[in-house]
Amino acid sequence: MKKVLIVSYVFPPMAAVGGQRIVNFCKFLPQFGWTPVVLTVKGGVNTSWDATPLKSIPETIIYRSLTFEPLLKREMKSAKSKEPYLPSEDTGTISSEPKKPSLLGRLKRFIRLSLSVPDFAILWIPFGVAKGIRAVRKEKVSVIVSSSPPVSAHIVASLVARMTGRPHLVDFRDLWTLNHNYNQRGYPEYFKKYDRFWERMVLKRAKLVTTASPGFSRQMATHLNGSLNGKIETITNGFDYGEVNLEEEFPASDKKCLRFLYAGTLYSHFNPVFFLESLADWQKEDRIDPATVAIDFYGNYDYDYKEWVGKLGLGAMVRFHGFIPRAELLKIIKKADYLLLLLGFQPEAANVIPAKLFEYLASGAKILALAPDGVTSELIKKYEAGICIGKKDGSELIRTLRGIYREWQNSPFPIRKYRYIEEIDRRKLTGRMALLLDNLATTTAPGTDRGPKGDGINV
What we know:
By secondary structure, the protein is of the alpha/beta class. It folds into two domains: about 1-240 and about 425-440, Rossmann fold (3-Layer(aba) Sandwich), CATH 3.40.50; about 245-415, Glycogen Phosphorylase B (Rossmann fold). Helix content is about 35%, strand content about 15%. It has 14 helices and 17 strands. It has helices at about 20-30, 75-80, 105-115, 125-140, 150-165, 190-205, 215-220, 275-285, 305-310, 325-335, 355-365, 375-380, 395-410, 425-440; strands at about 1-5, 35-40, 60-65, 85, 95, 145-150, 170, 210, 230-235, 250, 260-265, 295-300, 320, 340, 365-370, 385-390, 415. The strands form four sheets. It has a seven-stranded parallel sheet with strand order 3-2-1-6-7-8-9, with helices on both faces. The protein has a six-stranded parallel sheet with strand order 13-12-11-14-15-16, sandwiched between helices. Helix 7 (about 215-220) links the parallel strand 8 (about 210) and strand 9 (about 230-235). The chain starts with a strand and ends in a 17-residue tail after the last helix.
């Protein structure tokens, strides 16, 4: 079989959601004639760990290289500029206004930024390149794929491709300088120019670019003066139906408690503040018995909301459980009546499709999404999967919660099963990736190495 080198900082035992895309490529590519060879880090910086997914990819060859950022873990964590959402001591509400830093604070920030352009994994590049060249030569790799974030993986792969003569496919789970959170990083203009230099360097040589959202692909089509036209493909994230039993029936809704569940990281605009403030207002207005509603959050968060939730009077309703392994999460999702999706309302998030959306769609449960008009809301509407609120309107959210609650009171939600959606099937999506790899491996003439057309999910 042909071999493909997949360069990704995020890979098990890291439990970051981006690793699921790589694991599924590794799981299914052998069925399409490709042996995956993964280049990742030894150790690395991450918040949660779970080695279980490695058991599902026994045919994958893994190379792990050294990297320096674990030695600077505190600095690397600080360098990830996430807009703070902190409780106000006066009002008990959440404020997004950061305090003005001191001169020493600004100096420290400059140093941290210097270690985080293009991202926190920049210290991996020399080690990754050396290990990548070795892997390509030893394994006789035909094509190199890199996946981000972090985008340093693309720099590693591009340099390896240049030194070995292999074609390079750039895979964006999130975009680079067009990232929806890019401005929150607070880069001075000279850092932005430096970042754009690396982006141009990588994309100029790349033979093909894939993205995880048709909205991302549209953004990339006009990027860099349209120079990427003709070599952009969309391969969305999806759901691995091999992990579940499609014939399994889930218990009917609990007649005593309406259950909402959120799965995933809470940070920046992707936070529960507006939802919980509106929930508190609804509870007071309608005098809702706290025992009849449960809101459970599973995943990491950049602020401990528990004390603030207590001040809102939601302590009996809302629980934060932290990270749990994916296998356990899939079991818990079965018990939820509504699945929460919190993208916020920033226009920049209109092209984002959270990976959790595909699990939500497959689960058959109803979705309550707070998201701007865009690809996510269109998918929810397309599959009639739930309710999407597109603007920050507390009255509308309260009316929606009231309607959901009354619907549940009058007729608890029935037994449901997994819903099969062919275009989100991870195996079929990997088959599309394999076709792109086949094309790159067999095309030698410059400028002709384009894969099969199609944007995956059409929205």
